[in-house]
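Budget justification aside, the reviewers requested a transparent look at the raw inputs and outputs of the sequence design task funded under Objective 1. We therefore reproduce one unedited record. The lines immediately below are the structure tokens for a 622-residue chain.
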């Protein structure tokens, strides 16, 4: 087995799909034409049969990766004692998905777009370098056979289902057992461009491009990304890290519909060899709303409008689970059913089975999503675009439903599979939904069912103080009547429900620091105590560490917050990317890169920066 560490990958994409490129020049994960399509290359989770597209130097002894500054263009450099070469990887960005008008009522979405392409420009940097290329697709998660044939300038792969993938380059290709390979020599400043293209038409004949053509595509792609970065309003202490996180988050947006995925991968494990392996290639209401919160803080309105368009379409649909106004998650197109199945033929990343596609949590009840949703809508109305009356009507119906259903137990933010409970975090986010709805109604003078909302808001708060508080522990707990502490309780402070000087919040924060923190990193909870319905353990949860940074900042403990924040920056990959969790040796665990982690980094950087500039805690949410 030759699995690379998760942190040894970089990400490229075009807001339709994304590819993971290892520091050895191998594309080991790619789904085409969209994020949630069946994989074409899946060596990431099946080292033997998963498929890959590798370009590497024959005599390389030192491989390094970097992003071209302020872009998502990835450079992998290979070096030896007397030669060097590099591969520049990028996906040209599609156009034609801009829209105007009210995002809540506009729902025209098309899946018709130009073919997806990956450009791999191979360039000699020093001396004479022998390069080797191998391309071995494995269509349909490796379950679908394919044929390969030579065409003008390259080869065409055709799957048994009729899907077509072409590869062209100005070099000689060899075909053996469905694998295409090439060996070529580069002198200093010589270039060979490879173009991998997906097109649904079997008769499609790709054009061979020159090095000058590839250079032009490179410049256009760099210009796109730098123009996008130029909209960022953050100029603080950690601009480089924040910009890289924003660029990663942008790659997780799905341009045709406005959806935002949690991560571009499936089944990277939370515990090596364990079963906590999930498919994150879908749009969670919570994750997307928090991402929009992060984008809005940094000056990005278009992404918020895109998500509001997608969300508006969901609120107008009649199909719901148990009468709930929204599901926990949907496909990038808004499909409701995400049936979970296991791919038994795949051994998983480092033998971590099962590999799953689909996600069975789609039909769970997670009450907290309405709090994160209303938080993002409130910020969008203030800093982005005033919401329409039609949008308000839809939101009012959701808040009426929250008022009538907040008493029900749910599966919570962590999507436990051990049964529903009265999670304190879920209750406080229901409180937040109503609190933000009332503020929005007052600020815009919208009609609202104020008496019901106020009554429910106050009932929730009283119940949390009574049922969610453990007098023996002197702390709030994960759920009513439990003895388990949960890092999600930090949100009691971070959303402004409790003051940082409230004795209950102070003691809860202290207990979280004492029981869930290891070497400054934060576990979300103790799986052995929490009984989440799953076997095995997991790493520290990176988003929770950034939540603690925010909580310390709001508590006025600025030096501790800054130390923790900068310590956490040291756990990023060499490219500035994060997965969902961090293992005991500092290794990355879980799907990669992870929206949760990157959005929490940007938010905590923003809040900590402002607090340091003012020399005091910032305890308001605006």
């Amino acid at each position: 087995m030759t699995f690379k560490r998760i942190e040894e990958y970089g990400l490229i994409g075009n807001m339709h799909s994304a590819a993971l490129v290892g520091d050895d020049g191998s594309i080991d994960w790619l789904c085409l034409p969209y994020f949630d399509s069946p994989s074409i290359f899946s060596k990431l989770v099946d080292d033997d049969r998963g498929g890959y597209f590798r370009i590497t130097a024959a005599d390389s002894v030192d491989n390094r990766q970097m992003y071209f500054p302020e872009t998502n263009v990835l450079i992998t450099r290979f070096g030896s004692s007397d030669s060097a070469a590099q591969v520049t990887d990028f996906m040209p960005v599609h156009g034609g998905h801009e829209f105007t008008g009210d995002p809540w009522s506009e729902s025209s979405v098309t899946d018709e777009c130009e073919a997806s392409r990956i450009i791999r420009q191979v360039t000699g940097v020093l001396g004479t370098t022998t390069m080797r290329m191998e391309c071995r697709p494995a269509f349909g998660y490796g379950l679908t056979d394919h044929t390969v044939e030579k065409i003008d300038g390259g080869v065409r792969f055709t799957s048994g289902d009729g899907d077509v993938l072409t590869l062209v380059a100005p070099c000689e290709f060899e075909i053996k057992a469905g694998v295409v390979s090439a060996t070529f020599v580069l002198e200093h400043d010589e270039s060979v461009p490879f173009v991998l293209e997906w097109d649904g038409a079997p008769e499609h004949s790709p054009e061979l491009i020159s090095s000058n053509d590839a250079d032009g595509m490179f410049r256009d792609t760099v210009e796109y990304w730098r123009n996008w970065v130029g909209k960022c309003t953050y100029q603080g202490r950690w601009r480089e890290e924040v910009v890289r996180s924003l660029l990663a988050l942008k790659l997780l947006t799905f341009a045709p519909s406005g959806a935002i995925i949690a991560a571009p991968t499936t089944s990277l494990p939370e515990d090596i060899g364990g079963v906590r392996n999930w498919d994150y290639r879908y749009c969670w209401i919570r994750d997307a709303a928090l991402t929009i919160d992060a984008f809005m803080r940094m000056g990005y309105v278009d992404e918020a409008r895109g998500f509001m368009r997608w969300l508006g379409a969901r609120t107008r649909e009649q199909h719901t689970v148990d009468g709930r106004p929204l599901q926990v998650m949907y496909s990038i197109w808004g499909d409701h059913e995400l049936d979970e199945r296991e791919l038994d033929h795949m051994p998983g990343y480092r033998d971590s089975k099962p590999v799953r596609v689909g996600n069975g949590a789609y039909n769970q009840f997670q009450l907290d999503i309405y709090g994160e949703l209303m938080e993002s809508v409130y910020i969008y109305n203030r800093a982005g675009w005033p919401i329409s009356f039609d949008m308000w009507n839809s939101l009012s119906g959701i808040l009426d439903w929250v008022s009538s259903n907040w008493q029900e137990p749910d599966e919570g933010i962590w999507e436990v599979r051990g049964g529903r409970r009265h999670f304190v975090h879920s209750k406080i986010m229901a409180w937040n939904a109503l609190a933000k709805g009332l503020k929005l109604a007052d600020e815009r003078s919208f009609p609202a069912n104020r008496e019901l909302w106020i009554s429910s808001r106050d009932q929730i708060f009283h119940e949390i103080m009574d049922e969610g508080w453990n007098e023996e522990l002197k702390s709030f707990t994960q759920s009513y009547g439990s003895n388990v502490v949960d890092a999600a309780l930090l949100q009691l402070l971070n959303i402004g429900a409790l003051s940082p000087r409230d004795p209950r919040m102070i003691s809860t924060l202290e207990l979280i620091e004492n029981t869930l923190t290891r070497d400054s990193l934060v576990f979300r909870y103790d799986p052995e105590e929490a009984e989440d319905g799953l076997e095995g353990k997991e790493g520290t949860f990176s988003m929770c560490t950034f939540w603690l940074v925010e909580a310390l900042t709001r508590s006025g403990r600025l030096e501790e917050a800054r130390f923790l924040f900068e310590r956490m920056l040291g756990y990023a990959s060499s490219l500035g990317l994060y997965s969902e969790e961090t293992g005991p040796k500092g290794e990355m665990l879980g799907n990669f890169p992870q929206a949760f982690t990157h959005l929490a980094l940007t938010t905590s950087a923003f809040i900590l920066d402002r607090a340091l500039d003012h020399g005091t805690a910032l305890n308001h949410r605006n």
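The chain has two domains: 6-209, 235-614. The mean pLDDT is 93. Computational costs for records of this kind are itemized in the attached budget.
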